[in-house]
Fold:
Amino acid sequence: MRKLIVGNWKMNGSLASLAEIDAIAQAGQDYPKVDVGLALPATLIAPAAAHAGGLIIGAQDVHARPSGAFTGSLSAAMLCEAGARLTIVGHSERRAMQGETDADVQAKAMAGLAAGLHVILCVGETLAEREAGHAESVVASQLELSLPGDADPAKLAIAYEPIWAIGTGKVASVADVAAMHAAIRAKLAELTGPRAAQFRLLYGGSVTADNAPGLLATADVDGALVGGASLTAANFVPIIAAAAL
Ligand code: 13P
Structure:
């Protein structure tokens, strides 16, 4: 399976960052076997897409509805028109701060897919849930309630992002990631049958150039969703290189 490495810039970057995006796009061309993307702030999608080359430019969220009185929101068609080819849905920061439910996330995923966007659907447990021994059941439930049943594995990837590992420098151990990704694959088999093997499963949470080789060599880890370390080519390109090994 081709690996997919996506940077999530969150609320970072400005027009001055286009040079950095160019540098990432240029360097990405050295790794033709890896799919590389950046989920950018909406204001950067169009200018970045104009000279992205093979780099997949994406959004960090999408509204479930095609148009209407939804102040501040962007539809899938708007994102496509701006040049986005991908969108993240269900990031834990949005689930926590915007109160998004699994049903909301499913509706957003369906809207993205219907417009032709690649979708990265995020799942992941809190530290309290992991410590209580509920990590796998929490993630299984998120998948069951948010994965569009007919999703095409070529167009949708799952990102496992344990909330306690995001922006904390605390990366999940390879053993924990392997166990969770195997559990996700098993749940996908229950939900989607033989298609389950074809979904790309990304790990996210404090991925760096140092830990990427170990994580990306793990069974059922088909890529990474990278926050802080995706903001500069210097930090991000070695993670792309690790996916090409
Ligand atoms: P960090 O890589 O900064 O921990 O962020 C991970 C993340 O939330 C990517 O979506």
Residues 3-243 form a domain with the TIM Barrel fold (CATH 3.20.20.70). The beta strands are 3-8, 34-39, 56-59, 86-89, 118-123, 156-160, 200-204, 223-226. The chain has one domain: 3-243.
